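Can't attach files on this board, so I'm pasting raw text. These are the components:
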Amino acid sequence: MKAKTKNISIVLYKPKYAGNIGAAARAAKNMGIGRIVVIGPYDYDLEEIKQRATHMAADVVEKIQFVEPTPDALSQFSYIVGTTARLGKFRGPFLTPRQAAEAIVNLSQKNKVALLFGPEDTGLANEQLRLCHAVVTIPTAKEFTSLNLGQAVMIMCYEIFVASLPDVPAGEVAPRLALSSELEGMYEHIRQMLLDIGFLNPDNPEHWMLYIRRFFSRSGLLSREVKIIRGICRQLQWYAKHKKT
Amino acid sequence: MKAKTKNISIVLYKPKYAGNIGAAARAAKNMGIGRIVVIGPYDYDLEEIKQRATHMAADVVEKIQFVEPTPDALSQFSYIVGTTARLGKFRGPFLTPRQAAEAIVNLSQKNKVALLFGPEDTGLANEQLRLCHAVVTIPTAKEFTSLNLGQAVMIMCYEIFVASLPDVPAGEVAPRLALSSELEGMYEHIRQMLLDIGFLNPDNPEHWMLYIRRFFSRSGLLSREVKIIRGICRQLQWYAKHKKT
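---
Top answer:
C-alpha cells for the assembled complex are below.
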C-alpha cells in the first residue's frame, strides 16, 4: 500500500513569479501532493497561476494557503525540510533528495511536514534555514547549479512520490520475465530447429548455441516473447520439412 | 569518478511550445547533459527558447540540433529510450526512471543514447515507440498523469545525473558523524556535569542518563556538535563551581 502524503505541504517562501507557483501546483498534483503554502507579501496573478497549473490542478490552486511572512508562518509544522543549492560551511548536514524524501514520507505519517523552497533569485536565507530540521540539496552539474523553482519542486515531489510507493515498485511496472524452464525449452527448440535446417554442426551443436544463449539472456526475455520465438521455430521446422519433400 | 554523460541526447519529438524546449535545455544543463535534438517541422521562436533556458544554458541552446521528422532522424543513435505515460497492453517492458537512468548511463559509456520525449498533448505514438529499445514511465498520481514536458525532461535528467555520480553520493554530502568514543566522552562529561549541578541522583545517575542517550542517539550527532556540547558542559561546570563558592 502506498504511504499517505496528505500531511506534506510544499511551502514556497516569497516566490517572485506567479508562473512558478502554478508550475509547483501542477508538479504537486502530478505527484499526489495536495497542499501548497505560499509565504509572501506579494499579490500574485491568480490567472497566471491557474494557467501554468492547468485545469487538472485547479483544486490544488484553489486550496493554496497564502500566508504573511510572520515569524510563526511555519508554526503549524512539526518537521521542516529546507532546500538549498548553497553548500555553505555551517549549514549541514545536507540530505540528498532521496534521503530527504524517505524522512519526509516516514515522519509525515504522524506529523505535518513542510518542504520549504526559497525565492527564485536568492534561495533560502540563513534566517529561514535555521528553522529547518533538515536541509536538502538537489545535486546538479557544477557549471549551473541554479534550478528553476518549478523544476526543483518537481524533483522533490517526484522523490516523495517514489518514496511513498510500496517497496517493490519495479515489480509492478516490469512484466514477468520468462522462467528458466521456459527459456530452456526454447533453447532446446531453437537447437533442434537449427539442426533441422542444417545450420548447426551435429558434431558440435553447442558452439553456436552459446552465442544464441548469450544474446537472449542479455535481453531479458518475457514469457510471451518465448512463446513467440517458439512459434517461429515451429513454423521454420514445418517449412524446412515441407521444403525437403 | 562521475560517469561521463556526453553521449546522451535529449530528443524532443515534435514539441509544440518553444518555452518547453527552453525549459528542457535548462534542465539538461543543470544536470550536465549538453545535447538536445529537436525533431519537428515547426519554426520555433528562438528568443523564447533562450529566455526560458536562461543565459546559463545558452551554449546548450546554440548547439540544439533541429532535425526533420524523417524515418532516419534517430539513425545516429544505438540505444533509444522512449518516455510514455500510457501503460498500454503491448508496450512493455516499462522501466522506472531509475532503472532507465542506470541503463542509459551504462550504455552511453560506449554508445550514443537518445532519450525520446513526445509532443505535449499526445506523447509518443506507437510509431515512435516501436523504434525504442526500452520505454520508461515516470510514476505519477492516478488522477493527473500528464506531466509538463520540461518537468518530465527534468526528472529524467536528474535521475541520469544521480546515476552518473559515484556510488557513494550520500557519503559525500553527509558530514561525518561523531565517533562512538567522542559520544561516550560527551556522555561522561554530561553525567559529571549533571551530578555537579545536582540534577542526577548520585545513587542512581543512570536513570536519566538513559533518556539523554536516547535523545542524542536519535539525532545522529556530528563531531563538531559533540565539541559544542562539551564546551557547554565545561561552561556549566565552571558556573556551578563558582556559584557555590
